[in-house]
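Following up on my earlier message about benzoyl coenzyme A. Here are the inputs again, as you asked, copied directly from the submission form:
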Amino acid sequence: MYTQAMDVAPKDERKVVRSAEEAALEARFEARIDEGAFIEAKDWMPEHYRRTLVRQISQHAHSEIVGMLPEGNWATRAPTLKRKAILLAKIQDEGGHGLYLYAAAETLGTSRDQLLDALHSGKAKYSSIFNYPTLTWADIGTIGWLVDGAAIMNQVPLTRCSYAPYARAMVRICREESFHQRQGFDSLLVMMHEGTDAQRAMVQDAVNRWWWPSLMMFGPPDKDSVHGAQSARWGIKRISNDDLRQKFVDATAEQAKVLGVTPPDPLLKWNEERGHYDFGPIDWDEFWRVVGGNGPCNRERLAARVKAHEDGAWVREAALAHARKRATRQEAA
Ligand code: BYC
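Thanks, got it. Here's what our run produced:
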C-alpha cells in the first residue's frame, strides 16, 4: 500500500491500559508542549508523537534526495558555466539536507536502513512535486522560484517545531533554501528581461506547468488534513496547510509581476476585503493520483533512487570494512 502510515499506533497498542507512571509522563510531556518547551531525543515522548515525527521527517528527507533527480537531468545541459556551478551547488545542498534530516529521524530510534527500505519499496511518501518532469532549462529556474519558494514558506515555521533536533536541522536548511529560491528567481529574471521572445515563452510555459503542483506541495486542504490538527496541537506544525498556501500565493503573485509572467489562474485576484489574493480551485484528484504513485514520473524517480542505492552498495561495504579494520587496530593497540 502506498502509505508510510508510521504514525498510526497499532490497534493492540491503542488498547493497552496505561500505567499511572506513563500517565504522569504524558501529562508532563503535554505541559511542556503547552509551555512551548523543546523536546529532545532523550526526553520521554508519547509513541504517537514519535511516529508522527518519523513519518514527517523521513518523508521530508526522501523529498530532498528525490528532489535532486529532476534537477540532475540538467547538470550537463546548463547554458553557462556560472549556471552550471550554481545548479551543482544546489543539488549538493539537497543531498546535505537529506543527510541532516535522516540523522534527525534516526534520533527517534528508526535506522536509516529502515527509512530507505520504506522509500525503495514504495511504502514511504516523498513530496508530490518531484513526480513532474523538467522539460526545459526554464524548469530549473521555475523550480528554484516556485518549488524552493514553497519549501521555504513551509519550512521556516518548522525551525520552531517542538522536536529540537528537527528544528535545529531546519535552521540550516532554510538558510540554504533561501539561496535556492533567489538563484531561481534571478535565472528567470534574466531570461524574462534580457532574453529573446523564445526564452520568455519558455519561462511562461514552465510557470504554467509548475504553478499548480507548487500549490499542492502544502498538502490537502485543512478539512482533509489527516494529521494537521494533532501536529498543530503538538507544536510540530505551526501554520496550517491552507494558511501556508495562502501566504505563498500572496508572495508569488507579486513576484510574478516583477518577472513579467502570468500565473495560469484566471481567478487569481487581489481581494481588498480579505487582504489576500483569491485563487482558483486546485485539482485535488491530480494531487491524490500523484501521491498514490501515478504521477508522470513516479516510477522513473523510484527506479532511479533504487539504482543509485544499489550502485552505491560497494561504497557502503568499503566504509564498513574500513571502520571494522580501524576498530580492530584500536583494540589491538
Ligand atoms: N506530497 O495530514 P496531512 C523541498 C500526504 S522538499 C506527498 O496534511 P501532514 C525541496 C501526507 O503525508 C519538500 N504527500 O499531512 C527538495 C499524508 O499521508 P500519510 C518536502 C503529501 O504531514 C529538493 C496525507 O497526504 N517538504 O522542498 O500533516 C529540491 C495527508 O496530509 C503531500 C516537507 O516534507 C505532498 N505534497 O502535512 C527543492 C516539509 N502533502 O503520510 C525543494 C515537511 C501531504 O498519512 N512536511 N501529503 O500517508 C510537512 O510540513 C508536512 O508533512 C506536509 C503535510 C505539510 C507536507
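One observation from looking it over: The pocket of benzoyl coenzyme A is lined by residues 3-5, 55-56, 59-60, 63-64, 67, 94, 125, 127-128, 147-148, 151, 154, 216-220, 225-228, 231, 237, 241, 291 (CB under 6 Å). Hope that helps, and feel free to reply on this thread.
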